[in-house]
Amino acid sequence: MKDFFIADAAKFDNDTVTSYFALSSLSVREKKQGGQYLALTLTDKTGTMEARMWDEIADVLANCSEGCYVKVQGQISKYQGKFQITLQKMRNAAESEIDPADYLPATLFDVEEMWAELRGYVSQFTNHDLKRLVFAFLDDGAIASAYRTAPAAKRLHHAWLGGLLEHVVTLVRVCLATAPFYPEVNPDLLVTGAILHDIGKTRELHWKNSFGYTLEGQLIGHINIAQGMLLEKVKELSPFPEKLRVLVEHMILSHHGKYEFGSPKLPMTAEALLLNVLDDLEAKMQVLRNEFAAAEASGKSPGEMTEWVRSMDRPLLDSRSYLKDE
Amino acid sequence: MKDFFIADAAKFDNDTVTSYFALSSLSVREKKQGGQYLALTLTDKTGTMEARMWDEIADVLANCSEGCYVKVQGQISKYQGKFQITLQKMRNAAESEIDPADYLPATLFDVEEMWAELRGYVSQFTNHDLKRLVFAFLDDGAIASAYRTAPAAKRLHHAWLGGLLEHVVTLVRVCLATAPFYPEVNPDLLVTGAILHDIGKTRELHWKNSFGYTLEGQLIGHINIAQGMLLEKVKELSPFPEKLRVLVEHMILSHHGKYEFGSPKLPMTAEALLLNVLDDLEAKMQVLRNEFAAAEASGKSPGEMTEWVRSMDRPLLDSRSYLKDE
Amino acid sequence: MKDFFIADAAKFDNDTVTSYFALSSLSVREKKQGGQYLALTLTDKTGTMEARMWDEIADVLANCSEGCYVKVQGQISKYQGKFQITLQKMRNAAESEIDPADYLPATLFDVEEMWAELRGYVSQFTNHDLKRLVFAFLDDGAIASAYRTAPAAKRLHHAWLGGLLEHVVTLVRVCLATAPFYPEVNPDLLVTGAILHDIGKTRELHWKNSFGYTLEGQLIGHINIAQGMLLEKVKELSPFPEKLRVLVEHMILSHHGKYEFGSPKLPMTAEALLLNVLDDLEAKMQVLRNEFAAAEASGKSPGEMTEWVRSMDRPLLDSRSYLKDE
Amino acid sequence: MKDFFIADAAKFDNDTVTSYFALSSLSVREKKQGGQYLALTLTDKTGTMEARMWDEIADVLANCSEGCYVKVQGQISKYQGKFQITLQKMRNAAESEIDPADYLPATLFDVEEMWAELRGYVSQFTNHDLKRLVFAFLDDGAIASAYRTAPAAKRLHHAWLGGLLEHVVTLVRVCLATAPFYPEVNPDLLVTGAILHDIGKTRELHWKNSFGYTLEGQLIGHINIAQGMLLEKVKELSPFPEKLRVLVEHMILSHHGKYEFGSPKLPMTAEALLLNVLDDLEAKMQVLRNEFAAAEASGKSPGEMTEWVRSMDRPLLDSRSYLKDE
Amino acid sequence: MKDFFIADAAKFDNDTVTSYFALSSLSVREKKQGGQYLALTLTDKTGTMEARMWDEIADVLANCSEGCYVKVQGQISKYQGKFQITLQKMRNAAESEIDPADYLPATLFDVEEMWAELRGYVSQFTNHDLKRLVFAFLDDGAIASAYRTAPAAKRLHHAWLGGLLEHVVTLVRVCLATAPFYPEVNPDLLVTGAILHDIGKTRELHWKNSFGYTLEGQLIGHINIAQGMLLEKVKELSPFPEKLRVLVEHMILSHHGKYEFGSPKLPMTAEALLLNVLDDLEAKMQVLRNEFAAAEASGKSPGEMTEWVRSMDRPLLDSRSYLKDE
Amino acid sequence: MKDFFIADAAKFDNDTVTSYFALSSLSVREKKQGGQYLALTLTDKTGTMEARMWDEIADVLANCSEGCYVKVQGQISKYQGKFQITLQKMRNAAESEIDPADYLPATLFDVEEMWAELRGYVSQFTNHDLKRLVFAFLDDGAIASAYRTAPAAKRLHHAWLGGLLEHVVTLVRVCLATAPFYPEVNPDLLVTGAILHDIGKTRELHWKNSFGYTLEGQLIGHINIAQGMLLEKVKELSPFPEKLRVLVEHMILSHHGKYEFGSPKLPMTAEALLLNVLDDLEAKMQVLRNEFAAAEASGKSPGEMTEWVRSMDRPLLDSRSYLKDE
């Protein structure tokens, strides 16, 4: 198992370490004195580190390639202010040696607790059909396993293992806090939508070694994958009220709120509208959180504007420094 | 059965006729001398006619309402240059008395011939799985029946019974003529897309008495209804090649070509792109055909521009009058 | 005082009544037999009624005009299914005879209770400066009086007397329910924004006889009027923390969320973003409520789609009829 | 004449070669030991190669500059995995030594054959005036020469010598295959539009050494250049039917289909609409072809999505790998 | 000749008049007592009046139709507050009896003076070629005649006879006032653009009986018609400097400033940019002038906002009433 | 005081100089032989120069940082065709040693003359209230001082000290030249708008060491800052005509002309419209001027197109080379 992490490199300056990494990039370069060497990038969930391998590279070239997990032995040193590692050995890692959770960023929250919280909300539904429907998903082993692991995005908000679940749990909480103010909104239906709206991400994204889109993800997309999953579960639960199926299906299809964001329908019910608004809010608030953290990490002082945030087309400001004194 | 049609009113001026109509509108008005009378609009596939009923309206009010089929007896006369009918009797028509085809406009082509032509194309597929798939739809009695009757739209292009089939047959012909110029395009896959892309319209629209949207049509839409129908058939045909399913599904989802036209995905394969372009072309050419006919009907001379065509944001011109002389 | 309301016309069929109305329209028409008569529209908070005055119209023409309050005497009768009134007398009403609340629709909630609730929230602020600031508005007699009476819009959402206060109170409640989920959000600042964001509507709109825009409202707009009101209050409270002033001012300016909706700045703080989202949600939910009521009033059955809703570019559906059975 | 091409460098590793190239870039750099050397880029139709010249650079600097053709002598060697050449000699090439076709990419099809095919279509026109018109262009020596050589674009689709002709010939074929399905379309007029629509590119672009825009190309554009060329030919053919001139002119002006693509008029005739749709289709299909080739060249496996394609705002997929097995 | 104008109807109440009009609409209606009568609309440059013809309508129906000039005799009377005329006689007017200027609104300025002013500006050009070019247009009898008569638009700004010339003269004045502040601008080139930019309107529009678009106007448009006229004149003046031709042509093509306004090129020179801005300003200021006049005519008081102005997507305010007191 | 400027480096090749600079960037790098050195960028109003400091860098690191002014001593030399400086000494400069005008680009016009010209225009106002209002700004010491120094932008047009004043003076001149052609325009009101419209830039931007946005600038923006400044001055001048205040306020708010450019209101008066158009023209003409200069500086020949100009989405052409010969 992996016991050295990249974030700890400073503690091992000039030491030789043996550990596992995901191999993010590999290129062959010419040595000035003739012959070839390898320039590599190694990754784990705590960061990224450059590596060089100067000798005996033939076996590596034959067996390792970008995207693999590797076991390496090498010496840590500092170059131009950054740590890198000079490798003596490198080989492919066996699947049994690897816990993918070591190589990808993951939620800071407890997955079991979040899962239990989510199930708790469903068990309190008064609408029997919706309760049957949502539990058909949560009790489906394959779906549940993916749901608890998937990130919520390739990048931007919640792009980490467990990110999907974390996003949904927060969203359900806000839904439950908001629904009482709108008598047009049925809380069971709203929460059903909140739990199922992004479930297609379990097939749109893959999180093996890195986060990326599947072929189905690119050609079909999570909205329509989720719709297909819903129809399949409804068929299994048959008979299921037709109109209720349409209402849930509509929430899934319309949850991006605009055609240009990939929703083929605009929200037309109170629940669909509220889900769209709160889902968008959740995502944007997470962007703010990430940007405030990034600004702090880059040395900005608390009361300064962040850099331009491309996804929101504006810079942001964390107002807390101006308010906390009182 | 219905033997008087509104288009023939001139032949019956001042005669009393007995016939069936769809009741498009009904309103109660005050007579100047006290009491009430009925102002009605009657419709069949050849047109629309105003009606008045001056006496004994109580039974009618109790039993008939807008959208029903009615049997009436009354006298034809001309008023302000238009024919209308003064009713002596009116009652609800029994379902057995009505052939809906008499009340809604219908394709001018032979449905059986078009259907046979379509099946003929599929029987020549070289791809076995796609052949299985399309026939699973065409051999499904309920689907086939609706497919052969449905209009292609509520208004605009092909808004008549059999319009969907007419649209698809023409589209398949153009697909087959065009595909050979593009080696990237698989003709079987393209024709599969052409036949299935609008199949959701059989549930998006209803054509009972008039053309309109179903609740599912408005909340889900024909693109996503078709996707659901595809997934159901694929499941029945299991095992079916996963990638092939994704390619067909992608064509359905992307056939409107733009997010703002309700497609949740843009066309990413050669077949999806070609289907989108030719489907759009077919619809626009039909708009031209309709507008040229409407201009002629309104008394425009052959070489004149049409009125402004809202759906295309421009006026149109039928160039034929300037070309036919040679 | 007014004791006959238009909604009660049926109870007075063929009776002569004496009452006050707002005169919405007045036109002079030619009698067939020569001479002139008046065609009028009378309005009160319960509806609108046509009126005719056949004789002795010279005094009326000299003294009354559209937009005035009038006192009339006349006889109620039914014409083409609607009640109208044939006037014997009509004169301008004195200001002392009129309670404007009788002529414009008004909130169904208790203004005093809402006002007390709003003040209660402010009194619990922990931020002393924000508390000082908001109370400077709420304790300003002229502002408070307008705030408690103003509609929130000329038409669309909350277009009635007290609508502004009703809108704000609901918004504050949702703000307080939502804020705890976002540690980046300071609740006092958020509620300050919620209370002040639309305060410019007290000068953008007028609600004398009817709802409309003031000249300042059209040329400056409520966003910038509010900004001016804020700067004036801040000056009175001097010294007031400069940064805090900028944060509040920013919330006011950005609360429409997009340039094309008239906000000269996009929300850049967590509070501004949340205020924008919840304010928009509140307005949209009110549109749904109005449309559901309008659909019911027009005779739609509970599970039907509403007509096309122009301001949202879609039809809507009240989902409750499909959910209430369980 | 040129007998060494860059694509063959591997066969000449460590040899000294003498050949001609287009000089794409030239910069003077400081040697570490003092003095200057030249860093150059050499180009021919098969690719691009870096070059260095260490000594006797004064003559070169005085006589050669970017964009010229040069004759060089130098030794091929490999550096960081790529071939480059160390020059002993370099001088300007005389015009007589250069066949521009060696330096720019060119169509893979036979220009004479395509030209004959195009003329064949025109000779079968039944409309005498359109036949006269198109031959007036094709028989004009200067225009014909440019038409057979011009690329269809600076970059993107058909950006190679003969690309314009290749694009037009394919487009005419598809036009002729499609026209029979639309009785509103006159095939002679359609093909006239297909042959003339891009003829302005012969003056919008230049293809001397590299592909680029002329001043007239940037300020006027190929659409309006073509319009001017049409008016000139029509004048020469006088008398020519006025209305027919307007119909052809309209096709040229509207062939981009949208204002934002530089068409000052939207297509209003059946021929203009069909030309616009098929021209756009041809260009997009060529983009797919290029992108599939580029993906393969970059080492993607057949069933993978391409990279993001900027001009189409999406990634693409070559579906053939999933279909060819059957 | 015409000596009664519609604007003078009040002076002829109950009199019988004989005069000429343009026949804007004609419809046949059923008399209640049987038989038919004519409902007509008559127009001259001062307005529009309803007419009725009760007897002897057969000759009229055989000879007159919408769009013709007619001579009528009839009696003026007032009906529902408006004047109308009851006709005894009506016949087609001979061309010799009609001065079109009596039937269409016309400029209030002196055409000869404006024309002389325009020629005066050109005679002071220091650039000989531009002087030759512009005079080639102004000295062309057919063009000059149309230029002095054409309206500048079908509706909106300067929609009256002579409107084009009026628009151009004002524009040239502003150009000459503004050019000195921008040394990048050549005044002769700018004025050349101002005089020629809209010259295509002489063929885009027709002004026979009413204002409308020609077929060439709709399919080609005034921008591209003007370009064709320029190329023809340049050919006549040959040799003419090629680059200068391109600069003038560019100004014509780009003067609408945006693709979506029908300009196929954006302004890229200082003169093209300035021409676009000032042309747009002139048109907008004329809209303001029209709207202020319309508001006054409709009874608005001087300091009130106008109604919503659709072409500018806002209401307008004439500020003068708030400024003139001092 | 600063007596060496970067633009003069060539005259000091290999000399040791002592001077002051703004420190634009500072980074610490590893020497190959161990230890660290500094890579720096120094700036003054004439340009930018790279610097290296090899020894005794500890004091510098402790005291200097990016954005500071520094005093340095070092030797000029040429490296890869550019001058750089090898530092022996560097320390923070005292504020008294620095004239910021030496470090930021500045207007080439005389500030005193421009200021006097501006005041001259105001002194000729016939509207007493507007004269009072504008002088209240120009006579306010703090505002006047900032007004005379501020740039008009961070980058793009007039991005230099005094740029705001330069922009406004030119704008006022064009306003005064144009206003006489539009009787709807009050010249005093127009010039008031021209002088005050951008006055918020004195607080939106800062110009200390470099040009940038203030926090208030980003959260509020110069349009709304100016509005606040106006309301404050109006209050000081009380009583001031309310309507006049609204008209001036409206000009400030609407001067960007479109919502998406940050104006919360569209121009609704003749003065607001003219100000918007001429302000935009001024800015664009300045962009042309800058781009023509940049093209010349980069070695383009006079008649060539510039590179693509991003802010205008097109390339530009200086037409003068084609016109000056005559």
Number of structural domains of chain A: 2
Distance between the termini of chain A: 49 Å
Question: What's the CATH first level of the largest domain in chain A?
Answer: Mainly Alpha
Q: Quick one: biggest sheet of chain A?
A: 5 strands, mixed, barrel
Helix content of chain A: 25-40%
Query: How many β strands of chain A by DSSP?
Result: 7
The oligomerization state is homohexamer
Annotated CATH architecture of the largest domain in chain A: Orthogonal Bundle
Strand proportion of chain A: 15-25%
Keywords (chains A, B, C, D, E, F): Coiled coil, Hydrolase
Protein name (chains A, B, C, D, E, F): HD family phosphohydrolase
GO biological process, one term (chains A, B, C, D, E, F): rRNA 3'-end processing
GO molecular function (chains A, B, C, D, E, F): hydrolase activity; nucleic acid binding
List keywords for this structure.
homohexamer; 326 residues; alpha+beta; OB fold (Dihydrolipoamide Acetyltransferase, E2P); Hypothetical protein af1432; 5-stranded mixed beta barrel; two-stranded antiparallel sheet; globular; HD family phosphohydrolase (chains A, B, C, D, E, F); coiled coil (chains A, B, C, D, E, F); HD_domain (chains A, B, C, D, E, F)
